[in-house]
Design a protein that fits this description.
5-stranded parallel beta sheet; about 50% helix; Rossmann fold; alpha/beta; about 180 residues
């Protein structure tokens, strides 16, 4: 199974690209599973209200769900891989605090799992374009400062050899991701 991760700040088009990529790959006869962003299922506060418990829940459930799905398809597309916790834990530390032991635990989980992704995409959008998007879904922050904090964080945690997509033209972004995944099969 090819495991493909998509990371980036909120509202950059990760989910849209993942769904379109699934459609294209499925039409090629590939079996594709998608692990959607799990934060919406989390019983703890999300986004800027996130806590250590939030990040631990998302980390452990990401690992469990990826393990459950593993082998069920030719390709697994992961919308928000475990590496995203590295960024969100910094948001928790900045807002609510986190003990050193909690930070170490999350860091070890991230480090032990991040190498399981075969292909890694980092999706970005220039701030001027991001501001024009309709991202107010009542769930994630629409604050420019939060977006900037997260965008800078994701740029720091992407693994070496990742693929960067600046999602200005959605069709080109989808085509670029498709070409990379097809080449990796």
């Amino acid at each position: 199974m090819l495991k493909v991760a998509f990371t980036g700040a909120q509202g950059v088009g990760k989910t849209t690209i993942v769904e379109a990529l699934k459609t294209k790959l499925t039409s090629d006869g590939k079996s594709v599973e998608v692990l959607p962003e799990l934060i919406r299922d989390c019983p703890y506060p999300a986004d800027v209200e996130s806590t250590f418990n939030t990040q631990l829940w998302v980390s452990s459930h990401t690992i469990m769900r990826e393990t459950d799905i593993s082998g069920a398809a030719d390709i697994l597309l992961v919308d928000r891989p475990i590496t995203d916790i590295a960024v969100y834990k910094e948001l928790v530390k900045a807002n609510k605090g986190m003990t050193e032991a909690q930070d170490i635990l999350l860091t070890r989980m991230i480090d032990s799992w991040k190498g399981t992704y075969d292909v890694f995409f980092h999706i970005t959008v220039p701030i001027a374009q991001w501001k024009t998007r309709d991202i107010d879904d009542g769930f994630r922050s629409t604050d420019e400062g939060v977006y900037s904090f997260l965008a800078e964080g994701f740029a720091k945690v992407v693994p070496e050899g990742h693929h960067h997509i600046e999602n200005i033209d959605l069709e080109k972004s989808i085509a670029g991701a498709y070409d990379v995944v097809k080449a990796a099969l």
